[in-house]
């Protein structure tokens, strides 16, 4: 999800799920290696992991961005059907059931690993980004 800058300079994160719904955020280039290493080295077979550094709502994501960059940011909840990328039907249940809407005991989270990797925050990830690349047209 790429944020956009409004005419007044506010950075907007566009969502198509209810504002309270939290989604997993990962910096794949930084987090995947340590998570997979621990999963393979220290966990029994048949475990599945939801790899992420933080679960955040749109509002929390915007706040992380604001703290990291000093730019005013907000989450914008778009009406269903108006998002530029169509969402699969499964995602329509996020508001009612959350991201994990199934009972699968094989699913674990990074903090559930026997030796959880130390992952950075989304805020710190934003601090490392080149904003000129994010907002170039």
Protein architecture, described:
It is a single chain. A hairpin with a 5-residue loop joins strand 1 and strand 2. With 137 residues, the chain is an alpha/beta fold. The protein has helices at 28-42, 58-69, 94-97, 122-127, 131-134, and strands spanning 4-5, 11-15, 23-25, 48-49, 54-56, 73-77, 107-108. Helix content is 30%, strand content 16%. It has one domain (4-134): UDP-galactose 4-epimerase, domain 1 (Alpha-Beta Complex), CATH 3.90.25. The radius of gyration is 17 Å and the shape is globular.
Examine the coordinates and then state which fold CATH places here, giving the name of the CATH topology.
UDP-galactose 4-epimerase, domain 1
Structural class by sheet pairing and helices: alpha/beta
The CATH class designation is Alpha Beta
Count of alpha/pi helices: 5
Can you give the mean pLDDT? 86
The unreliable regions are none
Task: Specify the overall morphology.
Answer: globular
Name the CATH architecture.
Answer: Alpha-Beta Complex
Q: Regarding quaternary structure, how should these chains be classified? A: single chain
The largest sheet, given as strand count, sense and whether it forms a barrel, is:
3 strands, mixed
Protein name: NmrA-like domain-containing protein
Pfam family, one: NmrA
Domain NmrA-like: 7-84
InterPro entries: NAD(P)-bd_dom_sf (IPR036291), NmrA-like (IPR008030)
Short description:
The protein is an alpha/beta fold and 137 residues long. 30% of the residues lie in helices and 16% in strands.
């Amino acid at each position: 999800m790429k944020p956009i800058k409004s005419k007044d300079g506010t950075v907007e994160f566009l969502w198509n799920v209810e504002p309270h719904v939290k989604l997993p955020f990962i910096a794949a280039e930084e987090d995947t290696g340590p998570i997979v290493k621990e999963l393979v080295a220290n966990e029994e077979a048949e475990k599945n992991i939801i790899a992420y550094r933080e679960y955040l709502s749109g509002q929390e994501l915007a706040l992380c961005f604001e703290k990291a960059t000093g730019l005013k940011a907000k989450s914008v909840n778009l009406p269903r059907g108006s998002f530029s990328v169509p969402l699969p039907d499964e995602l329509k249940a996020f508001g009612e059931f959350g991201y994990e809407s199934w009972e699968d005991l094989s699913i674990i989270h990074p903090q559930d690993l026997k030796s959880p990797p130390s992952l950075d925050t989304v805020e710190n990830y934003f601090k490392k980004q080149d904003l000129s690349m994010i907002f170039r047209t």
